[in-house]
Structure formats: C-alpha cells, structure tokens
Amino acid sequence: MTADIAYHAHVYFDAETVDRARALCQHAAARFGIDRGRVHERPVGPHPMWSCQLSFGHAVFGDVVSWLARNRDGLVIFIHLETGDVIKDHTEHTMWMGRMMDLDLSALR
Questions:
Q1: pTM beyond 0.90, yes or no
Q2: If you write DSSP's letter for every residue of 21-40 in order, what string do you get?
Q3: Which of 4, 14, 41, 99 falls 20 to 30 Å from 51 in CA-CA distance?
C-alpha cells in the first residue's frame, strides 16, 4: 500500500445529533490535520442520512479509525476507500461503525 491511498469517513446524524456530529468532525479534523467537508443537513449523494465527510490518507488511517471508534458516541460512520471506482468504493471497499444502512447507489451512476 502506498501513502497516496485515500479514504472517506461519512459521519451520519439527524436533527437531534447534529451538534454531536459537528463537534466530532471538527475535533477529528483538528486532531489529525485531515479535511472536513460541509455538514449536510439533508441526504446527499448515496447517503441515506444527513452527513459530514472526513477525508484522510493511509498514513493516518489507523489513528483516525481507532479514534472515531472510541469517540463516535453512538453516531453511525461509513468508511470507504477512494480508488476512483465509485460503485466498488461504496459497496466492496467499506467499513461500518454502528448499524449498516442501505445506500442509494443510483446516485453514483
């Protein structure tokens, strides 16, 4: 594996948990120096819930994923590899923290 491998972690939330998700994403971005996307207060793309995306590389994968597992406070997190094959990245190259959810794969076609 090379250093340029990229990952996305999508933190899912709703109106009751938006503040918790916002704080988690801000803290992760600051702690690890990773990119935090917008906080979407509506489903976007294939994601079935409101979400915020964290982007990070292979070098910090273990640290970020371990920290998210310990600090997610009941939030569902969907993690996937970024290879350029969006279907495989969202179906085969995935990890879930919390309950698995159905994605709208038609949004990726």
A1: yes
A2: HHHHHHHHHHHHT-EEEEEE
A3: 4
